[in-house]
Specification:
The structure is a single chain. It is built from 2 helices and 12 strands, in the order H-H-E-E-E-E-E-E-E-E-E-E-E-E. The protein is mostly beta strands. It is elongated.
Length: 214
């Protein structure tokens, strides 16, 4: 997990840098500042190897909707919901060889804080983001699921990331972001624990979507 843990300090550094280097809030001086944004994005969601739930990295497709409210030119808050759709793929399981498996259906809900880096007279709006919430793995006991769950499992989760929007009109923009998620299953969580211990679940998500600004 050392390589994944090294990602967190880097993302925190970006968050601090964007806050410290951004100019002060200038109110209505920037005619492109919008208080509320609604976005819809698609992308790629990667589960890293996690014993015993994920024996090999697995890729899914997330659909994410987010509502963002800008408190100032720098700071904003965001509520995000993702439905992560599984894709069947070939993975290697000890004792079973190479088999076709897919993850359970997953829902993620996060409340985040955004730190914007305002760039005067530019269509670009870079940002750093951090948040917390929960991730739910829906029950599914089909033989092609990994892990097989007879009960839905919900666990706390956090996320850190960076991204940017690019304004294409006064109301529309394109948004790109990359996130690192970490979920924390209970020590007795079905499918995610061995004995009385469980490992954190590390995940990455890259997404591209459209933004409507009110």
């Amino acid at each position: 997990m050392k390589c994944k843990r090294s990602v967190l300090p880097a993302l925190v550094s970006v968050l601090v840098y964007s806050t410290c280097t951004a100019p002060a809030w200038s109110g209505s001086a920037d005619r492109h500042v919008a208080q509320t944004e609604l976005s819809l994005a698609f992308g790629c969601h990667v589960f890293n190897e996690t014993s015993p739930a994920i024996p090999e990295a697995m890729i899914d497709v997330p659909v994410t909707i987010a509502l963002t409210y800008h408190l100032t030119r720098i700071w904003g808050i965001e509520g995000e919901f993702s439905w992560i759709q599984p894709i069947e793929q070939s993975i290697e399981i000890v004792g079973s060889g190479v088999v076709d498996k897919k993850s359970p259906d997953i829902m993620s809900y996060q409340v985040c804080v955004l730190a914007m880096l305002p760039i005067t007279d530019s269509a670009w709006s870079p940002f750093a983001v951090a948040g917390a919430g929960a991730i739910t793995f829906l029950s599914n006991d089909d033989a092609n699921r990994q892990p097989i769950l007879t009960d839905t499992q919900t666990m706390p989760a956090i996320n850190l990331g960076v991204g940017t929007t690019y304004r294409v009109s006064p109301h529309w923009a394109v948004r790109v972001d990359v996130r690192e998620y970490v979920a924390f299953p209970a020590d007795d969580a079905e499918g995610f624990s061995t004995g009385s211990e469980s490992d954190s679940i590390w995940m990455e998500r890259g997404s591209v979507g459209a933004v409507y600004r009110f």
